[in-house]
Amino acid sequence: MFDFLAKGGMLVGPILLCSVLALAIFLERIIRFSKLRQRGAGLAEKVSRHLDLGNETAALEDAGNSDSPMGRVLSQAIEVIGHDRETLETVITHATEKEVRGLSRYLQTLATIANIAPLLGLLGTVIGMIKAFMIIQQMGGKVNAAVLAGGIWEAMLTTALGLSVALPAMVAHSYLVAQVDRYEARLQNGAVMFLKTLAGNGRR
């Protein structure tokens, strides 16, 4: 296998590096999201019940102890619960955006890998084709079919490798973006429930 890949030229190494980085990012994000899946579940409802009873201390304690994006958003919202509606909404929006940025970490890198991997493969193919035609020139135009065919398939190898890295990376990126969107929707629903609870209690 190593001998086979070595025939692809100097750009095989960067393409393989891209594949390792893409896999590492995907696994790290999957592990991260799996840990967050249960954290914060039902927290917005629990906090709302405390607020209905006028127990802000218990609401803040539950939110702070959850160690979840929802908990951090609600904690910051509870801390400014005595301020005007505009301030409260600004704090919630800022906290939500901060958590979404944290959830989206490394996704831009993954998208970049998906974009540059096929370009690296194409560049390797072009370099390989240049070498093949240089060999033809050195042979004085006497084309050796075996030499020419070998040079071409070695040149095309990098394109195949680049696409093999780019396609899974694109799928992984789309999947992770969908996961982030789902968590963002969950945070927004929790914030809306929080604001409705305050409005129902006549606090806003």
TrEMBL record:
GO CC list: plasma membrane
Protein topology in the membrane: Multi-pass membrane protein
Protein's cellular compartments: Cell membrane; Membrane
InterPro entries with a match to the protein in the record: ExbB/TolQ_transport, MotA_ExbB_proton_chnl
Classification via Pfam families: MotA_ExbB (PF01618)
Keyword Cell membrane: yes
Transmembrane segments: 6-27, 110-136, 156-178
Keywords from the UniProt entry: Cell membrane, Membrane, Protein transport, Transmembrane, Transmembrane helix, Transport
Any one biological process term the GO annotation gives: protein import
MotA/TolQ/ExbB proton channel domain: residues covered: 66-188
Family stated for the protein in its record: Belongs to the exbB/tolQ family.
Protein name per UniProt: MotA/TolQ/ExbB proton channel family protein
Subcellular location, principal: membrane
